[in-house]
Amino acid sequence: MTINDPSPPGTDNLHDLLALYALDALDADDRALVERRLATDAQARLALDELRATVGELHDAFEPLEPPDRPKERVLARIDASLASEHISQRARVPAPETALARLLRALWPALALAAIVLAFGLGAWGLSLRQQLLATQAQLADVEQQAALLQAPDLRVASLPPSKTAPPTARITFMSAASSSQGLLMVSGLPPVAANWTYQLWLLKGGQPVSAGLFNVDASGAARLHIVATEPMADFQQAGITIEPAGGSPAPTLTALVSIGPID
Amino acid sequence: MQISQTLVESAVGFSAAAAGAIVFKQAGSNRSSYMPDAQTQEQSDAELAARVARRDRAAFALIYDRYAAKAFGLVLRLLGDRAVSEDVLQEAFWRVWQRADTFDASRASFSSWLLSITHHCAIDELRRRRTRTKPDDIELDAPDDGETRDVADPETDVSESAWAGLVRDHVRQAIIQLPDAQRRVIELAYFGGLTRQEIAAQLKEPLGTVHTRARLGLSKLKELLATINT
Predict the structure, then answer these.
(1) Closest alpha carbon to B119 in A195, A121, A252, A57
(2) What pTM, to 2 d.p., does this model score?
(3) CATH 1.10.533.10 assigned to B160-227
């Protein structure tokens, strides 16, 4: 009996397939077939677990090797992007209040014409701000989707910028950019919030010349994300730096207030 | 305004006037110097896995720190190319994040579950590579890591290029003692990422034979691992 036999595989055949399944030696169709069987066959699951434990001894038998930082940074960046987009999606799924507004208008309009006109005018203004909120949330979602697209770019570079001597040594500053696009993403954690009249400012350096790339502050947990869309490709910039500037930013970086600087390419 | 690297490195730092009221929190070290025994590790892995399933990023980072070296060693042994191995490592841990809620501590150890996902990712990459290059016959390449090869024991005919990376002696011994035909099937599956049909074609054997050798091979391997002293 082979797998191409239309009748369901006998136990022997399934157990052969389980060994191959445990070894990752099945194509997608065979895998799907086995998984369907496993869903309803507790004995087959037990048998598979034993086979996997044996194969697991092989997985465990090779020399461990410390990887570089890049894969960790990348996977954490992916996780952060996905957590952010989950959060935004949840907020966007709140039912549109316009429905309640429409119901209210319909209920009030036939009553007193003048009062209804005044109310509608007032409620219309309220409806406008709700619509603006919805548009803002949609814009945020689009922005997060842009960021997710950036993280999939084949020419994505992930750079870890070292904190300066006076920044907390545990601060993590990651700058991601796709060389051919004009987009970048700064992610920081472990930086202290700045006081009310101050701000963090990100700079991109092109041949040593700083160009302001945006202002940000961190939240209570010391984290921040800044999505950058430049006017030229990221490949034009070699370094990024962060300084603390007066609120509203500065035209040029204050070198004595340097938080971090490093290469991004 | 020019910023040179040396100027930046000699920047004095924050003056109170420029920086305003900023308090730097001194982060204490929370890395434990206590090495947990295997059982404690198991419990803490399962706890971490449960936290990861609840979207706990810090728990995931700990899992990564604990297992990245093992996973990377495995992937590099299969793929040989460091840059590609880094990408596969990243993909494997991404899948661990996504599937953490499917981990069942009653069915497997967390380590085994994680490394199984890792192995699967590496196999996916091997298969992607093959659809790009389509060689006529699949040869298992020795990973290009500059290691000198052990001299093959002429009596055992272990394929050194594939199994050379085994550092656990009892596993190595068990593999050596497997009947050649069974070991060859396991080798082509485990290291080559071949499907059962491809293995049958490579070995010029019927599918049924490949099936039997895979099943018997793993059964024998389990028996040998249990009996060989660690």
Answers:
(1) A57
(2) 0.56
(3) no
